[in-house]
Every structure is written in structure tokens, then in C-alpha cells.
Amino acid sequence: MKTILVRYLSLNLALFFILLLILFSITGAFLGADKAKLFFNSPPLAIYWFLLAALFIAGFVGYRPLRRRPSLLLCHAGCLLVLLGGLWGSQAAHQLRRAVGWEPKLTKGTMLLRQGHRSRQVFQDRQKGVFELPFIVHLLETAVTYYDTPSIGLYNRAGKLIGTLPAEVGSTQSLSDPPLTAKITQRFDNLQLQRGKNGIVGTEGPTDRSNPAYEVLLTDPEGQESRHYVFEQVEPNFLPNARFLARYLPPHTPKEYKSLLAIEKNGRIVCEKTIRVNHPLCYGGYHFYQSTFGQDEIGPYSGIMVVSDSGLWGVFSGYALLTIGLFGHYWGLPLHRRQQQELPDAH
Amino acid sequence: MHIKWDIQGLLIYLTLAGYAAALVQLLRKRKTGAGRGGLAFAFLAAMASYITRWVLSTHLPMQNLYEVFLLMAVLVWPISLLTEHMQKHRSWIMQAGDALIGVLVCFPAGFIFSAALRPLPPALQSALFGPHVAAYMIAYVLMARAAIPAVAAVVGHYGGQQLIEAERQSYGIAAAGFPLLSLGLILGSVWGKLAWGDWWGWDPKELWSLACWLVYMFYFHWRIVHPRLYIRTRLWLVITGFGFIVITLLWVNLSRLFGGMHSYAT
């Protein structure tokens, strides 16, 4: 009688909890990711998660068929591990551990590093401010590559695009309206303009600053030449007597972002890795992700997202158990039964 | 409306014609195997179209709805043969259902979704990209197939042994698809951790996928709680699960109500 009651209760409670989670998920989908995150981390939902974990444990203890079938046991143990891993890695659990005197650990934050710079400071949010990592992160190098190539667009005074040419030294383009030949003659990493005998002339400036630009030579059919300087980071303006305007058209389809990071602890480099999207660096209980990339007049910078790895092994172990359990239960068992049924026929 | 005039588009229309011809044949003759030629032809045309897409895009064509619907058009017939073999059961209704699934996945691929080639964004350049999408697509086709006997039983007002047989068939296919549905969800979560830093981001598509997974989980638990009762409820649960898949695939992907991290998939 007791066994039947436990079975009935645990299974019906399981149905009830699954139904509730379906309703929560649909609600969360309509809320959007940010609000859904708050919703699923709210105190009522925290109670739900704990009760669900308790139901799993009660199921293991009180519902014998679950213990008898290894595949079912793995499925449920997997779900429980995912749940516990999620709870352990939650922001509330991080705060709780800090409150009871564990070493403070950041849940999630961002570092904005310039190439060649280093820092241990991670910005969390406006409320929590800055968190100091127990080690230093160096950004040795950062770069972005694109599927498309940059180009230089030539516009007439009406603002109409009259031609484009790849942003490479030596590339040439003949234009028909008006008849002109455009050629990129030089590229500068830090362009500085100086007034010379024949007008304004571009020269390469000091290497500690960045002002990438191109020199475009326009030649009309009479052989008259005019030089234009096209800045990568500055929007061009029409000069009063200029007939044309050249604009840098940056590539817009990123192929890969990457940053070479090094971790320094106690004065020596302990870890080094090039991080890319899908390839984070794992060190000291944190994962470092390539998050954003940018470039300004000082040089390139990289946004590195820092995320705590707490609870992750619980989640991933849970996934492994759940996968093995599900395939074992729904694929392995029927195949095994089928083989057993076919055996007598073979004899 | 995107009508495709290139070779790959024409192959999609041939696939659609093959599935439609099979459906008409099966509905007219009401005989198992009547539309086999149409199904085989549709599979070959879909395969040719998919391979052409692969060559043109230079990456695994599973990036957007157009490509995944094309993949489903390829999967319909092999999955039909496999489940027929596993269940040792063939019926013209199931085959007509296969043909209908084929028509339903080819139509948006042929007329609605854009076939514009897009380079693979950095987040999709992962070893998990193919397995994650493939697991989901195979699971979706299996779950769609599991809904066929359920719909037939509900619409046809089956009773007695016929109803039980339809549910058994439906369960067998849903049970085959459920581990793959779970694998798709799990691989997506692991990939999310590697790409975005979170193994769960509360994104609308993630939540709909979870809801969809939970509906099937509810169904499997329901079968255990009520081993001999509420057969019709079980069939409705399989149909509801399939409805959730349709929402996940179409509404969540296409609706502006659900903007999220998976928006590149549209």
C-alpha cells in the first residue's frame, strides 16, 4: 500500500512539476531573455527549483523502478546534476558563498583591454562595480578578420557613388562619369598632413599613435592630378573647392575575432592562449571569452567576458548521464528486446 | 515570396512535385507503396539540391531556415524507411503523412525563405554546429512522423484495438526521436557555453525548445502514470509536442515578438 502511494504521489508530482515548467518556459519566452532570466532566478522560482531537486531525490529513495533500471536512473540523476550545477553556479549561490566566508568569486563581468595592456579589474555592473581577479590578464594581440575586403568609395558633390576600388596600394579604377582614373598610391598607419610646396602632403607619423589612412591619386584625361587622403576612422567632409569625396568603406562581415591572452600570477606567465568565438580560455575557475572588438585612434581594443565556471562540471556531467540514459532507455532497450525476440527464431 | 530560378531552386520544385505526386497517388489508391516512386524521386531531387547548396555555400548548409527545411526534405524518406523497418509496419496513411511532411517542408523552402548565400558568422564556426542542427532536424522529422498516426487516430475517431495500435506506433517513433531531441538541446547548451559564455541564456528559442522537450517528457511520464488509460490524451500530447516544434521552428524564428540570440537563423 505504501509503495503504491509513493509511486502514485511521486509520478503525479513529477507530472505536475513538468507541467509547471512548461508554463514557466512559455511565459519566459514571451518575456524576452533579460526578463526571463530575472523571472527564473526570482525567489518563487528558486523554491520551485529546490522542490524539483527534492522530488528527484525522493524519487530515487521512494520509487523502486527508478533504481532498478540503470538507464532511467541515469536520466534522472543527470537531470538532478544539471539542476544542482545550475543552482551552484547561480548568482545567488555565488553571493551566498561569499556571505558565509568563502573566497569571493565573480559570476560574470567584462574586461576592456587595449592591445599590449594588462589588468586584473573586471567590470560587473553599475551596482556591483569592479571586481579584482586574483591574477593579471594581458592582452598581447587582438585582431579581426573579415569575409569581405575594405574598399574606398568615390562620391561626386551630389553624394552619388561614382566608383569603388579595393583598399590596397596599387589598386586602380577607371571612372566614366566624370572620366577619371583613381589609384591608391600609399597607405599610412599614422597619417600626418603637412603643408608643402605643392599643397598638403601626407607623411607617416610616430608609431605610438594610430591614424590609418590611404592616399588616392585622381587623374583626369588632361593628365591633371589631385591627391586625396582617406581616413579609416574619420568621416570625410567636402572641401570648398573639391569636386570629389573619397570615403573609406570598412568590411562589415566578420569572419573571426581573436585575442592572444596571457595570465600572470606571482610575477610569471602561467598560461597563454589565443581566444576566439567558440574557443575560450579556462583558468583559475574562470572562462575568458572574446566578446567585442573595436578600434579607435589609440589602437585596437578587445572586450573580454569573464564568467565563473562554478557548477559547470555538474551541468556537463548531468548532460552526459542524461544522454547515455536516454539513448540507453529509448534506443538500447528496444534494440536489446528485439534481439532477444529474434534469437529463438534463429535457432 | 522568393521564387528561385537557379538550378538549386528548380531541384526544390522537383522535390515538391515528387512529394505532391506521391501524396496524390497514395490518397487516390489508398494502398501501401503507391507513392514509392514519387517519394524516391523527391528524395533524390532533395539530395541533389542539398549537395548543390553545400557546394555553393562552401559550409555545412544548416545556417538558416531555408537550409534546414531543405535538410528535412532530404531526411523524410530515409527516416520513413528506417522506422518502417524498425516497427515492421507499413501503411499507406503513414506514407501519405511522409509525403505531406515533404510537401510542407518544401513549400516554404521553395517559395517563402530567401536562398541568399551568407557567410558563416564566427559563432557558427564550431564543431558542434553540424551535430546540434542535425540532431534536431532528425528529431523533428521523427516527431512529425510520430504525429501522423496520432492525427489519423484522432481525426478518424479510432477506437478499441485500432486506437491502441495507433498509439503504440506513435510512441515507438516519438521514443526514437526523443533522445535526439534531447541531444540537440544538450549540444546547443554546451555550444552556448563555448560561444556566449552561458550554458543557458533564457533566450526565447531556448525556452520554446525546452518547452517542446518538456511536452514529450510529460507524455512519457503520462504513459507510465496511466499505463492503460487515457489513450486519446496520449495521442493529443504527441500532437501538442509536434505543435510546439512547429512554433519553435517557425513562429519563434520568424516573429519579431521573440528577438534573441538565435536571430541569425532566420
Provide keyphrases for this structure.
heterodimer, A: 347 residues, alpha+beta, Tick-borne Encephalitis virus Glycoprotein, domain 1, 3 domains, 4-stranded antiparallel beta sheet, 17 strands, elongated, B: mainly alpha, 8 helices, globular
Structure description:
The complex is a heterodimer of chains A (347) and B (266). Chain A has 347 residues and is α+β, with helices and mostly antiparallel strands. In chain A, helix 3 (43-62) runs antiparallel to helix 5 (70-89) and helix 5 packs antiparallel against helix 7 (312-346). The two termini of chain A are 44 Å apart. Chain A is elongated. Chain A has 3 domains: 2-96 and 311-346; 107-145 and 254-308, DU1608 C-terminal domain (Tick-borne Encephalitis virus Glycoprotein, domain 1), CATH 2.60.98; 154-239, no CATH class. Chain A has helices at residues 2-31, 33-40, 43-62, 64-68, 70-89, 91-99, 312-346; strands spanning 108-114, 118-125, 129-146, 151-156, 161-166, 172-175, 180-188, 191-196, 199-204, 213-219, 225-231, 244-249, 254-265, 268-276, 281-283, 286-295, 300-308. Chain B has helices at residues 7-29, 36-57, 65-87, 92-112, 129-155, 160-196, 204-225, 231-254. The mean pLDDT of chain B is 91. With 266 residues, chain B is mostly helical. Chain B has 8 helices and no strands. The relative contact order of chain B is 0.11.
